[in-house]
Design goal:
By secondary structure, this protein is an alpha/beta fold. The protein has helices spanning 34-48, 73-92, 102-108, 110-115, 131-139, 187-191, 199-211, 243-247, 252-262, 280-288, 305-310, 317-330, 349-362, 379-383, 390-413, and strands spanning 12-13, 24-30, 52-54, 63-68, 97-101, 121-123, 144-146, 169-173, 175-176, 195-196, 216-220, 228-229, 250-251, 267-271, 295-297, 335-342, 366-371, 419-427, 434-438, 444-448, 457-465, 469-477. Bound molecules: S-adenosyl-L-homocysteine and FE3-S4 cluster.
Length: 482
């Protein structure tokens, strides 16, 4: 997703929300991608209507939920460690119930209940509406589980409780699941087939967020460019849709345009784009609307044609370069970021060099880089030996990271001297005299606070930079300021 968070570092508990009638306390922690954080807001909303307020104090929780990630082995280990901690807490609070949500719940199913005695409840990503019923079973002294994946569920009818929010930017999910079947990836197995959410419910949510004072939204999906609404149903069944459904179908470029027009003062971002599904009409819509940010997260995973093929990424290196060239032609100042995997099975030194040379061509603004982690059940997990030695993977990963750092600095330096519109999100971590926000290209900008406030669009002159941050000073309100 836009910023794939390092799961090992990012277990985040959610802040309080209150409904005075509720008597029970929910503590919910999320790991992994932005979709999980967004899903936790849906879960909190469902439980809010069923007697639970959220708390950020583990010690007072009646119910602890952990929304889990399976993308790499390390992510799963992090959750296992957290469960040990919850176990210790449960010794003092025997009535506390513990539930596991998300991708690990879906992947491990009843094994979770067998392996982790502390777990009372296991719920997969499409079954969150069933949590109140499942909790009833838990109250009756049973373990409870629902890991059924759905063909329809999009949670479009649930208004998420905005937890942990800065009140400025929010996530809006537009698709669930993924049909791409990249051979290394567990997501199609844990999140099921791809389905899109009704554009009307997306627009309602966006308008509601605007009315609540939010200034920026990120449209979320595993593969947003393949968004397709034709009245409901799986993406793969579109061929069998009626002529009317086909004629009135909304693609991602259409949705982006609808959202940009509905709230012209609101910044729009989206994530993630698989290069094989990104089309020129999306880039053209981006360039047409002032409020759609000039930033694309465009994971490539490898620069080697042979490895791309083995990964079932359905584009070549050449086609990727073409896409990059088109983006730069249509949106010259577009920020572009990557995900890379080092040490996919059979990767040779030459394949790795292809990755480095691809990076040199694109010079990404930033990236998220990982050592290959074999996932049980995936095609690569079943058919390919994890044959790149750990030390080789590590060294290749370090080379990729070091090169990315060079490129990040090259990119941030290009902003020096420019005046850029920044949406203020929070106080700078390093100085309470500075604001922190992002420019259109998604790079963090810090500058002295003056009289500006959180949620303002401010034009900032960039005067200094590191490889990750731009430093500047405000020169007035931005064009998007109401
Ligand atoms: N389409 C998704 C991709 C999810 S996974 C999205 O919206 O972000 C995020 C990233 O994790 C992938 O792009 C890939 O670089 C990495 N990843 C996925 N499976 C992996 C594995 N088995 N080992 C190492 N990295 C992996
Ligand atoms: Fe995974 Fe590939 Fe989909 S990385 S989420 S299978 S686009």
């Amino acid at each position: 997703m836009e910023k794939v968070i390092d799961e090992a570092k990012q277990g985040t508990s959610l802040v309080n929300t209150q409904n005075s009638k509720n008597t029970k306390k929910l503590y919910i922690e999320s790991y992994g991608c932005q979709m999980n954080f967004s899903d936790s807001e849906i879960v909190a909303s469902i439980l809010h209507n069923n007697g639970y307020n959220t708390t950020n104090q583990l010690a007072e929780a009646d119910l602890v939920l952990v929304n889990t990630c399976s993308i790499r082995d390390k992510a799963e280990q992090t959750v296992r460690k957290r469960l040990e901690k919850f176990n210790a807490v449960k010794r003092d609070q025997p009535n506390m119930k513990v539930g596991v949500l998300g991708c690990m719940a879906e992947r491990l199913k009843s094994k979770f209940l067998e392996e982790e005695k502390i777990v009372d409840l296991v719920v997969g990503p499409d079954a969150y509406k069933d949590i109140p019923n499942l909790l009833q079973e838990v109250e009756d002294g049973k373990n409870a589980m629902n890991v059924i994946l759905s063909k329809e569920e999009t949670y479009g009818d649930i208004s998420p409780v905005r937890l942990q929010s800065n009140g400025v930017s929010a996530f809006v999910s537009i698709t669930r699941g993924c049909d791409n079947m990249c051979t290394f990836c567990v997501v199609p197995f844990t999140r099921g087939r791809e389905r899109s959410r009704d554009p009307k419910s997306i627009l309602d949510e966006v308008n509601d967020l605007w009315n609540k004072g939010f200034k920026e939204i990120t449209l979320l999906g595993q593969n947003v460019d393949s968004y397709l609404w034709y009245g409901g149903g799986l993406k793969k069944d579109f061929e069998n849709a009626s002529e009317i459904q086909k004629a009135t179908a909304v693609k991602f470029s259409g949705l982006l345009e609808l959202v940009a027009k509905a709230q012209p003062k609101m910044r729009i971002r989206f994530s993630t784009s698989n290069p094989q599904d990104m089309t020129l009409d999306v880039i053209e819509v981006m360039s047409k609307y002032r409020n759609i940010c000039n930033y694309i997260h465009l994971p490539v995973q490898s620069g080697s044609d042979r490895i791309l093929k083995a990964m079932n990424r359905l584009h070549t290196r050449e086609e990727y370069f073409n896409l990059i060239d088109n983006i730069r032609k249509i949106i010259p100042d577009c920020g572009i970021s990557q995900d890379m995997i080092a040490g996919f099975p059979t990767e040779t030194e030459d394949d790795h060099k292809d990755t480095l040379s691809l990076m040199k061509y694109v010079k990404y603004d930033f990236g998220f880089m990982f050592a290959y982690s074999e996932r049980p059940g995936t095609l690569a997990g079943r058919k390919m030996e994890d044959d790149v030695p750990a030390d080789v993977k590590k060294r290749r990963l370090q080379e990729i990271i070091a090169l990315q750092q060079e490129h990040s600095l090259y990119r941030t330096k290009q902003h020096l001297g420019k005046v850029e519109e920044v949406l203020i999100e929070k106080e700078s971590k390093k100085s309470d005299a500075h604001w922190s926000g992002r420019n259109s290209q998604n790079t963090t900008v810090v500058f002295p606070k003056e009289d500006y406030k959180i949620g303002d669009y401010v034009n900032v002159k960039i005067i200094d930079c590191t490889s990750a941050t731009l430093i500047g000073e405000a020169v007035g309100y931005g064009e998007l300021q109401s």
